[in-house]
Amino acid sequence: MSDKMMVSGYTANNQGYLENTTIPIDSHMPFTGDPATYGMPVTVSAYFGMLFHFYNYLSKHPEVKEFFQGRYSIEFSKASLFRLLGQPGCEFVRFHFVIPENNEKISLMAEGLDANHVNIAFPVLLEKAKSGVLDPTPADPGIEERGNGGEDEPLMAKLFAALKASGHPFGAVTPIDLEHNC
Known about the structure:
alpha+beta, 6 helices
């Protein structure tokens, strides 16, 4: 028996905004007993539509664009996410914007949450916060930080260049446009 099931997800309307899809998306179901999971599969049109709206927003709001420091995505490895999700009781992952180094570049930090959206090992975190003693111990929850990377995104640029060249409206603003025009 396979864990693959047909699930509904989201597609994009002709403006690129999400709407429920009646087109089933073949996807692995989450390994959670909670019927109200966060996150749903999206179609390719929703993928491009959501990215377009993000880039378009940044092009219209240079003060917000500055915050991202030219980095519009951050990658976590499968191993990193599995370490979080493999913690006993972990059902969700929360991402925080952080600044991990003195170069003040933003990054993401991820932590596991239980089914009630409580940090894994919350009592340990609370005790450390109350005592002010933050030394590592074996009881500490797993928390992952990606770092501010340095990954180039030539394939993403190639995707959006192709979308722009096709004349599709979702290619109207691309990551390259953000770097050159704003």
